[in-house]
Amino acid sequence: MKRRVMRCGYLLLLLCTSLNAAVMMQVDPPRIKPGETVRLTLTLNEVKDRVVPDLTSVRKDFNVIGTQRTVNYTVVNGQAQSLSQWIIILMPKRTGQLTIPSIPIGSDKTPEKVVMVADAPTGNSAGQSSGGSGAPDSQEDAVLLKTEISDAHPYVNQEVIYSVKLYTSRRLLDADYEPPQVKNALIIPLGNADRSQVNKNGIEYMVETIQYAIFPQKSGSLTITPPRFSALVFDMVPGKVQREGKPLTLNVKAAVQGGAKTPWLPAKQLQLTEHYDKSAKTIEQGGMLTRTVTLKAVGVPAQLLPPFTWDSPDTFSVYPEKPVESTVYQHGDIVGSVTVKLSYLFNQSGRVDIPEVKLPWFNTVTGQSQMVTLPAQTIMVKGQAKASGPAGLKASASQGTSVAKMSATMASPLKIRMHLARYQRVAWAWWVALGFALLWLLTLLAWWCSRRASGRGNKLSDARKRLRQACLANDAGAAKDALLAWGKQIWPDKSCMNLDDVAHGVTYEPLKRAIHQLSQWLYQKPNNDDLLKAKSDVKPIQSAVSQDDVQPMTPQETRRDDWQGNDLWRCFLAQPADKKKFKKSPTNPLPNLIP
Predict the structure, then answer these.
(1) Is this structure's pTM higher than 0.90?
(2) Do 243 and 230 contact (CB within 8 A), yes or no?
(3) What does each C-alpha distance from 349 to 283, 346, 385, 391 come to in angstroms?
């Protein structure tokens, strides 16, 4: 019994000693190769929230990829215990034997550790383009990159399919891909990447295949710079992988020349077609015929197809338009096509032969030279009818002259359409400019009318104010001037030279008599009976006039020898709103004597 108690006490002592240890550090794995990472685990027997490892000394030989912290709490025999761990992922900056220095963490330090970074790959791992061996969960087998070509001995301008296959078995982050490059050659990507799934050495891979079409432009040895791929493997221990394809070399053969003027055209398939806009074989002299020729090649882009040459004899003229090029990707190959439209103008009557078109090409599938041909076409050109006698000779001469002028001055259909399009654009621009000019003139006219109306309204209001002030001040001369200004604004088509002209235009009788009373007062002594009569005429309408517009008459103003303007102002305000315009009187070259 005592022995058992002693053994338990010894075990508890060891456990306490281990729990009281400062910091423990573990390195996994101790031997790596360039590009791989090492996992550093720091274990503390106490949880200190504000304590973090100081990695300043570690950054000299290593790059810190990431850090992670975990905390565990346990209860043993009623006593709580805590355990804190720091996981640090490091990537070496150089090869050889590297020492991980002591890492301070709080008041404690970790011991030093040694990591071996080998120059050559360790184990039985395969190269970059091999399937790889070893454990299925190793980062070496997480990413594989392979490259291959369809033909290592092509001809100049022959299509070579370059395939890149990327095998991935893990989830990747921050992937970076650099495509292949090649000098003295044209390289074209073929569509999007093709994805598939394969099992290789017991590992399931997702395969992405990217294809390129390479067209060498120079004979001899041609090296293709392989693509490069780098990414971060997402795992318990993240690691960065870098892969590069195997360099491949093309031994390009020179073109098989058939002649100095014969174009070199290697292709898998070639097709040459034509189409005429008229099926009839007869056409009148001076008429035109449109022909469309299309060249389609498999394994050749449109920019590498040879240009066409067209013969133009004396019997007709040929006007080719600008070729239309197209390059598409179909069934794993580049397909290029060139379409050109030609217009034939027949200058002479009789039988006209459009010569055949021959195009030699090299079949890369059979390795033999072949020829495509467009057959010749015969067109009967009818001359215009001729009349007998001198008149007929003149007609034929004039017709011949017109045909010659037409053939000499008439441009190609493309130029004609260009001139028509240019004329339409110019005409459209002129119409737009004319529309803007018209809108500007209408705006200017509306502005002028508004200014004129506002000016006339201001003058009319000013005349009313002047009349009111003159009437309230019993100023007969000022009242006359205000009435004349008011009449000129009311009847602009009749010049108001005197008060009689104004009174002639007024239809309200009390106002007319008040104006006559003003005129008599100005040029003769007023009659008291007339003044009393004018006042009696105003009495029925006094209720319609505001008391603010009429000032009370002072004893001085009631004198019979002074002109009183209140009666005129009351009549002016009481006149109906629908004033009739001034009626023109017979033309009189001499103005009235009374102003």
Answers:
(1) no
(2) yes
(3) 9, 8, 12, 21
Residue among 366, 470, 458, 345 at smallest CA distance from 409: 345
Q: Which value, in Å, is the radius of gyration of the alpha carbons in the chain? A: 55
- In angstroms, rounded to a whole number, what is the distance separating the alpha carbons of residues 153 and 251? 5
pLDDT band at 252 (very low <50, low <70, confident <90, very high): very high
Q: How far, in Å, CA of 173 to CA of 238, rounded?
A: 10
Please name the residue that has the structure tokens 């003159």.
470
Q: Are strands 377-382 and 350-354 parallel, antiparallel or unpaired?
A: antiparallel
The token duo for 249 is 């070399």
The alpha-helical segments, DSSP class H, found in 224-350 are none
In tens, the pLDDT along 26-35 reads: 888 888 888 7
Nearest to 538 by CA among 581, 570, 507: 570
CA dist., res. 28 & res. 90, Å (int):
11
Strand order in the sheet with 368-374: 266-267, 357-363, 368-374
Residues 216 and 219: their CA atoms lie apart, in Å, by 7
* Cα dihedral 501→502→508→510 (10° resolution): -100
The beta strand positions in 132-193, using DSSP E, are: 143-149, 160-168, 172-178, 181-182, 185-189
CB 300 within 8 Å of CB 329: no
Crossing angle of helices 509-523 and 476-490, rounded to 10°: 130
Q: What does the pLDDT look like over 489-531, one tens digit per residue?
A: 888 777 678 888 888 888 888 888 888 888 888 876 545 454 4
* Cα 503 to Cα 473, 516, 534, 568, 582, distances in angstroms: 22, 7, 15, 12, 10
